[in-house]
Amino acid sequence: MLFLESENKIIKEVLEGRLGEKAPRPVQPLEIRLCDFDDVQYDMSIADNLLTVSMAYPPYKTLEGLGAKQMLAARYPEFQVVAPKAGFDFSLQVNVDVVTPANAASFIERISILKRNIMGAPFEQCFEALQNGNASTLGPVQIPYRRNETIYVLPQADRIVVVYSVCFEDKTDQAIARVFLQEFVDTRRTVNNAPPVAFGKDPPLELRGAPGLRHSPDLVGYLSLAIFPTHVDTTEKRIKAATLVQGLRNYLHYHIKASKTLEPCASRKGPVQDPEEDHHWPNFRARLGKDMVFCRPYDNLELDPHFSVIESNQFQKVFILSIHSIPLATMLSLLSRAQPRARVLRGLRSQFLASSSTSASGEEVTAVIEKKTVPQQQQPVVETTWNTLVVGEIVDFHSHPQADRLNVCAVNIGDKDNLLQIICGAPNVRQGARVPVAKVGTRLAIKEPETGELKKLKIKKSKLRGEVSQGMICSEAELGLTDESDGILIFEDDAEVGGLVLEHGTIATRLKARGISVPTPQPKVTAASIQPEPNQE
């Protein structure tokens, strides 16, 4: 896939022609208007030796109070904020004499990424707070960045959760978008240290009951990702993370439109002779009128009645697919057979082929994809012993001497004089965190994300590379609260140390909502509640 750069190429080329190192002097006049993603409009003019840059951006008023105003002062110090032109949200003005051949490239670059800097300001602010350890002091943020679409930024003590509501008016766009977004979730599992990603039709738990939650008939779903301190622990990482997060929706939009064109993904004259010489050979396809040609290695495509072999050699076969009168739904399914990365579409193939005799509308495509991509309910975790799952506090921790990714934690579960030593490899371990602890003897039923099967686990005292572990610090998935999770579950700082996890907050309610049966909490016995037995006499 193509990676979209954050700069505006037109702005860069126009300003290089007026202010660049090789541009004629004195500076020539300029008047230009142009558009960008997300309903952005620019107006740039050079007159009387002054460069004026105006921008119309629907969420600017919201972003101005979320760090954009401070960002403009810090990154554009030579500019003055002047009265905006009619129809624009703000205008910046500067004397062109400040631009020299030495600083022209940097000056032009900053203007070309003006939209990225404004949209990225609240993310950089949150990521910096996460790096400094005070993200929990920030409140949730809603950015209405497109019509009917909102970005929710939810700072937590150990992570920043970013949730996108994604909408498309066209039904086919909606269907393809769901496939792309589900592919993000699937691919993330194969990429080490990537932020956790989740996608679903319903708002994630962090947004349930949130004020101002916007609903649209064109809603595709909610994409959420979690940024941990390890993702933003340097200035370079923080800037890159903000760039990727703010441009994710544009990235999705571009590739959906590009995928609909069915244009060649590579320009070839014929089948390649040796796959070792060209790593792109499996993805080759070309349009020939109403036919499409695919170069593929030996596989079972020839068993499909829609494909015909037109050439073969010792490395591969060349298939031709007639696309005349094939419904869009069937086409998507067949293309998934020829493109290895479209794993989600492969799973839908049988559903699409069943309707190949009739023309499938966008609504039908959407219904089939929704049916396949909605995760199944987790099976009831009947094996979990909740009476030995307690709230603990990580009093201290240090790196495992024999393993870089493991931490040796000292955990208090109610007896400060007898701390448990627990080995944990989660990325969000921190001192003082209140966490769910499975004591030795606890039984857990953990759902395998790949197969959906329940894996029964009994917690035992053990040694991990020479260090004793006396329990387990659990994640939400290990408790049955979600199907997948990255990192341990961290409770509020006022959670009762030593109390049962099942009795904390909304744990029991969340489990019941997922169809997991839990025991009824027993009332706590106090001295006042103990009554003397009646005298038999």
From TrEMBL:
Key words, A-Z: Actin-binding, Cytoplasm, Cytoskeleton, RNA-binding, tRNA-binding
GO cellular component: Arp2/3 protein complex
Gene3D superfamilies recorded: 3.30.1460.20, Nucleic acid-binding proteins
Subcellular location: Cytoplasm, Cytoskeleton
Residue ranges of every copy of the TRNA-binding domain listed in the record: 383-502
Gene Ontology BP annotations: actin filament polymerization; Arp2/3 complex-mediated actin nucleation
GO MF annotations in UniProt: actin filament binding; structural constituent of cytoskeleton; tRNA binding
Polar residues bias locations: 528-537
Disordered: annotated span: 518-537
Family: Belongs to the ARPC2 family.
PANTHER family reported in the protein's UniProt record: ACTIN-RELATED PROTEIN 2_3 COMPLEX SUBUNIT 2, ARP2/3 COMPLEX 34 KDA SUBUNIT
Record's protein name: Actin-related protein 2/3 complex subunit, putative
Lineage, broadest ranks: Eukaryota, Sar, Stramenopiles, Oomycota, Peronosporomycetes
